[in-house]
Amino acid sequence: MTTSSGAKTVVRPLNNKAQQAKRQSSVKSRRFSLRSVLLWILLLLSAGLFLALAALPVGRFASAAISAGVVAAAFVLGRFAQRFWHARTLTVLLLAFVTFRYFFWRLTGTMPPVDDLVNFIPGVTLFAAEALSFVLFLTSLFVIIDPVAREPSEPTGDPALWPSVDVYIPSYNEEPELLETTLAAAVCIDYPRDKLHVYLLDDGGTDQKLAHANPELAAAAKERRETLQALCERLQVTYMTRPRNEHAKAGNINHAFHKTSGDLLLILDADHVPTVGILKATVGFFQQDAGLFLVQTPHFFVNPDPVEYNLGTFERMPSENEMFYYSIQPGLDRWNGSFFCGSAAILRRAALEEVGGFSGDTVTEDCETALELHSRGWRSVYLPRPLIAGLQPETFDSFIAQRSRWTQGMIQLFLLKNPLFKRGLTISQRLCYTSTMLYWFFWFWRPIFLLSPLCYALFGLEIYRINLPDFACFVLPHVFAAAFLSQFLHGRMRWPLFSELYEYLQSFHVSRAALATMIRPRDPVFKVTAKGQSVDEDGFSPLATPFIVTTLLLAAGLAACAWRYSIFPEHRAAIVPVAVWCSLSFLLALGGLAVVYERKRVRRQERFTVDRPAALKFEDGTSIDLTVADVSAGGVGLLVDPKWRDLLSQPDRTPVLTIAATETEAATTTGVRIFRIEMRGGELAVGAGFAPRDRQDIVEMARFVFGNSVGWDIFLDRKRVAAPTFFGGLLFFATRVVPRLGHVLLALPGALRRILTFQAP
């Protein structure tokens, strides 16, 4: 079942029902245009009154009293937010009111004079960073003010009339073992067999690569193509490649798009393994709405990223992506602004045909495609249900490479296809896309916020004119309100200080890619994120230098604050706020240092904890009852009665493992190979790798490991305990960082020698 690059091109007419749905939507929009205009006028008048109240010039202590009263009222209202939508909105507005008051005070009362350029230039730079983050704050509030909570939508009617689905799995340089898992799971998807077609889109075995001038590279590409063709034959899926590697992932998918004919497309990254129910949970949305072009689902990851791994937070707190997938995307969905994230998504062919396929002008082809289709009146849906399991970058340098590409793509979109000026978008969609793109300018404001206290501490510059009473009356209420608002909106998805930590860790390195993109927005090219890498021993990442230097500078700043406090008692009212600011920056820098000092991490497949009865049967007919304790894509952990140790220790045995059926899952059978035996808590712990005997074994194990996402939901909910307060977040942050500092400090002299002598790590 192999299709080469010469397959026949299929061109299909636009879906008439979809076009009719779009026309009806347009008529409905015109019908309610007057009402919309009146609502916007009312909204603008209310906003003007809100801003006028926030800007009222009152005394320092009166302002503090107003802020305290507003925060207290918001705290009370927030208790009713789950029961009354208006309580949630009012809580958000009250807390935003405190931030508005801070911003107006900041603009009118803290700026250095224009004629003092030494202070004015860095002061204006800091204010510009605050202003940009403030705009992001406002657009973000709009996005998440009323998130949508959707439930799965199963297809209805005669299965013979259900839409056909093409499953695209684009690949470039991934290992065959990783692809085998994804392909086997895709084959297991619960959908009518004649309606489901799985394609491996191999960009690592193109004709161009087979004809490479370097004979070794050409031979490797040929071997890859032959290996993957054999894999596809074994799993009964279609292998597809193309003549040339043009337009990266978008070009690869478009090549397949023009040679296939499914009504819907399911896009999966090579390391995104789907559950059996991914289509049963999503296809119904397309039946209900002929004008729908996208159903996006979350990216659930089974392994920790470098921050989670090095700080040991993966199983103790929500991951970084959860705020986006479970707070922001549902908010975008309210405004028909949820966008394609490159994988774990189902798209309508008719919509894509209208724009000629997937867009490829930027390196974020996913968001770009969604922007084009939204501007043409198509609609999107976001389903907050994990239906795939993927892998995150394991090393800090691969993490930065991934984020640099995302930053480049969003800046490209902002410059080349700015949503504020894109024809066809609603006002709400413009704000949604603008908010998403503005976030990727964090590389500008985060280092400025972090390092600004050094201007006064080290050089005596007054770029932010403030004293202790002003700090207490304006800054502290703003900090409390912002922390409370963040906890109120994202409390179960993001803990205090970890957004700042992730932004800080990315800023120094992605800034180079961002600036290069701003100068030449059409130059960036798509780069595949490396997965499955390892860290052979503890040590600083090759990218650690700016974090070491920053930490030392902030330590020097704290020492300078202490010196100034003792030498200049008349300036203590100004020194204390700077010292507090510098202390928070230093804590963040220590967190960054603990992350870039990477712990040993050998490559392995992540394991899920299970508790299932099973049996192990040998060639001679002997059968052993046991328990499956954990499972990964590559094998299982078994708990066995110690009396069977001698039998299990015999070499070259390949018994058959049968995992008992449950009410919702059939029994699973596969060959295994035993590679580890050890005593653990009075039981014999046996490590076994899968040794599938045929295609059926491969398919059954993929179904068992990745078929049901219930365990993933339980895992996510276990981490989503109520977030600590701001001070509790500080404590948690410190407890994860401090235990790592001993190893970091021991390795620091060697790292400094390399930095000073310009040696590579």
UniProtKB/TrEMBL annotation:
InterPro entries: Cell_synth_A, Glyco_trans_2-like, Glycosyltr_2/OpgH_subfam, Nucleotide-diphossugar_trans. Its cofactor is Mg(2+). It is found in: Cell inner membrane; Membrane. Keywords: c-di-GMP, Cell inner membrane, Cell membrane, Cellulose biosynthesis, Glycosyltransferase, Membrane, Plasmid, Transferase, Transmembrane, Transmembrane helix. It catalyses: [(1->4)-beta-D-glucosyl](n) + UDP-alpha-D-glucose = [(1->4)-beta-D-glucosyl](n+1) + UDP + H(+). Catalytic subunit of cellulose synthase. It polymerizes uridine 5'-diphosphate glucose to cellulose. This is Cellulose synthase catalytic subunit [UDP-forming]. It comes from Azospirillum oryzae. The gene is bcsA.
